[in-house]
Amino acid sequence: MLELDEPAVQQELARRLAAPGGESGGVVWVKDGDEVIVWLDSLTVRLEPGTVQVHVDLESGQTGRAPLGVVIAVAEPQAQPSLLAVTDDTARGDERLAARWGQTLQDAVWGTLLAIAGEGAAGIAATDGMLLLRMRESG
After folding, report:
1. Which domain does 46 fall in, by range?
2. I need a surface site. Which of 6, 53, 56, 89 has the fewest CB within 10 A?
3. To 10 degrees, the CA torsion angle through 83, 89, 95, 101?
4. Which of 62, 47, 63 is closest to 109 using CA atoms?
């Protein structure tokens, strides 16, 4: 089993959310002609038993800068390893940002967690301050 603390998960998430060679402060996401700034310097990760919580500020011309949060339910440490997760219908925060960018942020966070786990992962779990990655048994 591999363990990553909150700062390590936060650093990897910020790296993957930024465009290659992007700024560490903010990065522009473009989707169907709409643009939003994702302020990576505001990114926080909180790990609790069975949950991964990610908050980051997004900014658009229509909304200004506002926080958006994603909560992903994963396995608890003692549960059977799984790569399934459950989340809200959309992100938490400003309704306009959540409606337009919430699903994109959720997908980016979950995709990053899967990428961190890698192809050999059997499951992702969370406990206080730690992301637990269970690997498949060789054999």
Report:
1. 2-135
2. 89
3. 50
4. 47
Q: What is the mean predicted confidence (pLDDT) over 113-118?
A: 94
- Give the CATH number of the domain where residue 90 resides: 3.15.10
Strands (E), the chain: 2-5, 26-31, 34-48, 51-60, 64-73, 86-87, 92-93, 121-127, 130-135
> Based on the structure, what is the number of domains in the chain?
1
Q: Which residue has the tokens 């089993």?
A: 1
How far apart CA 129 and CA 46 sit, in angstroms, is 7
Model confidence pLDDT, tens digit, residues 30-43: 999 999 999 999 99
The neighbour count for residue 98, using CB atoms within 10 Å, is: 22
